[in-house]
Amino acid sequence: MRCQAQTKAAARCSRPALRGSKRCVMHTEGRAREIGRKGGLRRRVFNPENLSPLETPRTAEDLTIFVAMTMTEVRLARIDPRIANALSQLGGIFLRGLELGELAKRVATLEANRRGEEGNENESSKQD
């Protein structure tokens, strides 16, 4: 059975009625307001002024502090969990970048040491 309510456009609602009722979920007394309120709370605007000040992470330790603070902000409902999820994904990318940068430094050091050893071997073979 279709909902018996009338829409704002003065047409009959096209949604199915709830079992045992003549109206759909949206036209049941107070239900639309409750659903709208829940949606509004879920979509509330992110206000960065509510967040604790924090320096931009530059090390893995800084990132750990950032993640811990973000977790706290989510629990205190200061930041939307979806934003926190995006931040955690970006944090993972940041951490991988740190790891790759550290690895590149190590490889450069090893290559420089190897070039130095090869140079020493060439000089000692010339002397023989």
Account of the protein in words:
The protein is mainly alpha-helical and 128 residues long. It folds into two domains: 1-44, no CATH class; 47-127. It contains three helices and no strands. The protein has helices spanning 31-42, 60-75, 81-127. Helix 2 (60-75) runs antiparallel to helix 3. The longest helix has 47 residues, at 81-127. The protein is elongated. The protein starts with 30 loop residues before the first helix and ends with a helix.
Short description:
59% of the residues lie in helices and 0% in strands. It has 128 residues and is mainly α.
List the helices and strands and how they pair.
Layout: H1 31-42, H2 60-75, H3 81-127
Helix pairs in contact: 2-3
Features of the shown structure:
single chain; 128 residues; mainly alpha; 2 domains; 3 helices; 0% strand; elongated
